[in-house]
Write a structure and sequence with these properties.
345 residues; alpha/beta; Rossmann fold; 2 domains; 8-stranded mixed beta sheet; 4-stranded antiparallel beta sheet
Amino acid sequence: MHESLYAPGLGYYAAGLAKLATRDTLDRPEAAVGDFVTAPELSPAFGYTLAQQIAQVLRQQEQPSIVEFGGGSGQLAHDVLTALADLDIHPNYFMVEVSADLRQRQQARLAQWSSSVQWLDTLPTAFEGVVLANEVLDAMPVHLVGWHEDGSVFERGVSWQDDQFVWQDRPASQTLSTALAAVMPPLPGYLTEINPTAQAWISEMSQWLKWGVALLIDYGFVAREYYHPQRTKGTLMCHIQHRSHANPLILPGLQDITAHVDFSAMAQAAHDSGLDVMGYTSQARFLLNAGLLDVMANLDTTAQRGIDKLISEAEMGELFKVLAVSRGIEIDLKGFARSDRRHQL
């Protein structure tokens, strides 16, 4: 998964592919490009509403700052900066982007903000402010693990046979076996994912986030839903030309590969590394809490398109979740004022 997504010059995020459907192409279906669409591209209401929550935190800083990971086309940064400017908040905005192609698109999209936006090649060593990660955790490479009929734990890997990629299993490491045993009892024939990379990323965040809030937005479940006995094939999915399927062995480097997020594991990694877990809820509830209805009142009809997908339970509203972890924050975050689900983690 790592090589397919990030191999220099060849991986999906390292090659010059039109990965994201953008807002302008969504308005013109005949010009549609990319393989998938993210919330910021559906409507400016997403970024404008997210900015209301961000503002609550940044108002506590003398020099407000934001760092965004995996900024896509730059649309989210554009919308957040636009909404914050209307609130008379003018932050330093840092972007961390592994894709050279996407970085160029971001720089073009954010040209008007060139004096306040800076791209980073490495993680910050010390940061205070708001961390944004929208659909970042799902693209971090996972390990496929499961149980053989004899109850032994295997890790599923990839081999080359008869001029094609094929699955090949091997005994799982003790680390993966222990991690799997911690989330569910043995179930022969069951296949799922473990994501130590995402957990390590959050643990690393605890080293450089000196004060502030990280808003982690992605599709996923709490552990008891993620590792439900009926979810026998896991959550690994591929996306290409707005179609989804479950075979990552075809078209390597040409299609996106993702896995849903185990938010219980993410919250546990934050807690274990000394961060506070401040809130967890659905995307729909977060946006409504943060002021979506007030934002909508100021949008024209065109800009309101796509909002139904952001909050509908049948679309992104329930599948996508928002997890907030922090250090040194003593206020209650407005995005979790109602229907905070931390007790489910």
